[in-house]
Amino acid sequence: MFGYDETEFSELSLDALVPDHIRDRHAALAHSFRAQTKSRQMGSAGLNIQGRRADGGLFPADISLLSVDDGLVYCVVRDVSAYRLLENQLREESDRLSKALVAAQEAVRVKSEFLATMSHEIRTPLNGIIGMTSLLLDSELDPEIREFVDTIRLSGDTLLTVLNDILDFSKIEAGRTELEVAPFELDRVVADALDIANQAAIGKRLELTSFITLETPAAVYGDVARFRQIVINLVSNAVKFTDQGEVAVTVDVGPLEADTITLRLAVSDTGIGIPENRLSDVFDSFVQADGSVTRKWGGTGLGLAISSRLAELMGGKIWVESEVNKGSTFHLEVPFRIAEASRAPSPRSEGALSGLKLLIVDDNATQRDVLALHATAWGMEPVSAENARQALDIVQSGQSFDLALLDLHMPEVSGLELAERLVDGWETPFKLILMSSVADRLPLRASLFAEVVHKPIKPDKLCRALQRAAGREVADENTEPDYDRAAGSFRRMRILVAEDNQSSQQVTRKLAQDLGHSVDLVSDGIEALDALSIVPYQIILMDVQMPEMNGIEATRLIRERFQGAYRPYIVAMAANAMAGDWDKYLKAGMDDYISGPVTRESLAGALARFAESTRD
Length: 616
Ligand code: ADP
What we know:
- This protein is an alpha/beta fold.
- It has four domains: 74 residues, PAS domain (Beta-Lactamase, 2-Layer Sandwich), CATH 3.30.450.20; 162 residues, Heat Shock Protein 90, CATH 3.30.565.10; 120 residues, Response regulator (Rossmann fold), CATH 3.40.50; 122 residues, Rossmann fold (3-Layer(aba) Sandwich), CATH 3.40.50.
- The protein has 18 helices and 21 strands.
- Helix 3 runs antiparallel to helix 4 and helix 15 packs parallel to helix 16.
- The structure holds adenosine-5'-diphosphate.
């Protein structure tokens, strides 16, 4: 190793093996090791020791020492050149990689920024196209032309969805997504998602059910819009990829830790399923399980990528189990802090229904269980039957009921026929309530049923229908005046929704459309101003917090710009409105506000106040 032969080596002084520049230090160290260490003491030299070869060349050395009696020291010297070489190579490689990483991150950021800008630039003129088209559609059109315009509108809406998806995804990728934290009601989110998917489900005659366990807290703290976005995506996919059978949403919770629970939501369908080798890919961006799928079903392949990123942002995760041609179950797990208010039972349901006997007839087992659980929670005594025959047997056996809840769609004997038999067979002592889909337009013998509830069944609506049927209605002070009763006095209105969050956009649009109005969407204040210069919307539902230009600034500009005869009515939508905020909205020129997530009741209330304000 040192380049000497054995004889030369044995005659050398130790100094000859040590390079000149560390000779003094080496001598001092050697001396102190000898002097201080006891017998059989181990030692080692520092890492940067070098050895000196016979030809004067240096090499990195690693030295271990062992002192024995009589000041004698055994010394093992290793040439670590190869090791150092490797170490240097590794260091260079790691430097190179971290530089590449920084460059890649920068590239991703630039790309995301480009995408965001591009999407925005395309969306603005697109909103013009959509706005003009909806104006055209409101005018008298030749049927053939109407069809063309309808297609333009549909394509425009589709393009807008794609762009919004891209924009949303690039924002998440660039780390520019911040989650809001406010209390929200879980069952409302599920009901909203089912509501949005309902139309498509009815078209395919799919059964949509939801089941929320009693342990699940009514309200939790979180970002309702983002959470709803995930649920809407999962439910819409389930309906999209299922041609027959059912789509079921179940919500359950894990154990409570401090004040946090893990929410477990599952969306199961009986659809086409996903091949095993594609199960993990579907969460990647722009990936669809089957390349050919796009042609039949459409979509960008971004929905699940966005959903899984959002779930991660919330500290949770999404995964899927699936079997081809049997169906899929998407699981979502997210930790949520329980909202204090949710521990108190809803005053509306408490007591009013207690003690009433309810007969439930539905062929869908999940739905039966859900209904029975709700009824039990309201203090009722439910008995379930899975078909008309069973129901008739139960009634004939002499059991008495106050109310009966009948599903319209059942194989063999429908809810309608069952109702007729119950009425015609003998003097029926109980009130009947029908469960049907909104799209069902059957020649109902209206007098047969005290109430009709539409699927998906929402617990609060069902509760009120049961109360009305039983004549035990409890007025709820918190509910806005019921829009339905006054429906005759409202005309169809043109509404602009300015809201940056997609799922909130969809929900608000759906709610307003359900109330019979025409709705266009924009994503921020600037777009709202552009849209107004094209279409004179009567009402603007304006999200207060939006990127680019927020709702308050936009309102101020709108009031400045439109000072003539045209004055749009502006309703602020504020998820986290605080005391005193209303003053700020009023000063900016807003007319009304909806606080918290928009609901059918709060929207109907705002529209009713608008109608009131325009009445002569
Ligand atoms: P998109 O639906 O826009 O294509 P997604 O990211 O939502 O994008 O879904 C990605 C792919 O995952 C879909 O194209 C489809 O192949 C598959 N997929 C998602 N949900 C389901 C489901 N419930 N059943 C079968 N396949 C599904």
